[in-house]
Design a protein that fits this description.
Blueprint lengths: L1 H25 L3 H15 L10 H20 L3 H20 L8 H14 L3 H9 L3 H5 L1 H14 L3 H7 L9 H22 L2 E3 H7 L5 H11 L4 E3 L2 E3 L14 H18 L1
Antiparallel strand pairs: 1-3, 2-3
Helix pairs in contact: 1-2, 1-3, 2-3, 3-4, 5-8, 5-10
């Protein structure tokens, strides 16, 4: 009886810590959350390996690391994010092996990991992760969102990718979307500057999905110093001398240019 009481007390400690961590993640109390997560990871060291690990302990550990993933996103710490994902995978595998592979935040975490791989352009790893998903997991908004984004990027539907920024399945996706949108804007800018000699500032703002001309000016000053903004017009410098046609992915560029031209006509 004393042994059962001791075991129940031991199990209550991680449960209480997980409740604290959940509250800290929800309130963006990052430093306290890190301290709580550290305590939970120390507790995880005592979980037996292999088949001796109790189901409840495996599930609690997975729940703790899922919260750790969300905490690292809130902290904008990609190294911690990758560590928590790596530590989490064996627990997912253990749960799957005993037919209990569903945790409260699993699809959320899987979706965030796909977003991370997509932003890093690690497409082979992205597709390897897709192979591990069940059909039900792939259909959830958390997971289907990055899958759709990847398809849109592959066919050059940049406008749809930019619009997706306002339809994320959870605020935690915002960090990765910001990075992805910057990459997409750079790609659009590369295409625009070789497709047009100049365009109206209003059209450039719309095409690149900026909120204002000031945002466009900031982008130009930071990344496109050779662009000239003057009199309501944006003028692009000609390509450097010596550039060859083979330097430009012609078919893809032509398709994108036609898409932008069509979009510009619709705007005007």
């Amino acid at each position: 009886e004393d042994r059962r009481a001791t075991k129940n007390q031991t199990m209550a400690d991680p449960k209480a810590l997980i409740n604290n961590l959940s509250r800290q993640v929800q309130t963006d109390d990052i430093e306290s959350g890190k301290a709580t997560l550290t305590k939970l990871k120390i507790w995880m060291l005592d979980i037996p390996s292999g088949h001796e690990a109790p189901l409840e302990s495996i599930t609690l550990a997975a729940n703790a690391l899922e919260l750790g993933v969300l905490l690292s996103v809130a902290d904008l710490d990609l190294d911690a994010f990758a560590r928590n994902i790596s530590q989490l995978k064996p627990y997912y595998a253990a749960l799957s092996s005993i037919g209990s592979d569903t945790t409260e935040r699993k699809c959320h975490v899987l979706g965030l990991n796909l977003m991370h791989l997509l932003v890093d352009n690690r497409l082979s790893e992205f597709h390897a992760e897709l192979e591990l998903l069940s059909e039900d997991e792939a259909r959830t908004p958390f997971v289907s969102f990055p899958i759709t984004l990847e398809r849109q990027l592959m066919v050059g539907s940049y406008d749809e990718v930019l619009n997706a920024g306002s339809n994320v399945p959870d605020p935690s996706y915002g960090f990765f979307m910001e990075n992805l949108l910057e990459t997409v804007r750079d790609s659009i800018a590369d295409c625009v500057e070789v497709s047009y000699k100049s365009m109206k500032l209003d059209d450039a703002v719309t095409m690149m999905k900026f909120e204002s001309k000031d945002e466009l000016r900031e982008y130009v000053s930071e990344k496109r110093e050779d662009w000239i903004m003057e009199g309501g017009e944006l003028t692009f410098q000609p390509p450097p001398m010596g550039s060859k046609a083979v330097d430009i992915p012609s078919m893809k560029l032509m398709a994108q240019s036609l898409s932008y031209a069509t979009e510009l006509e619709r705007i005007v």
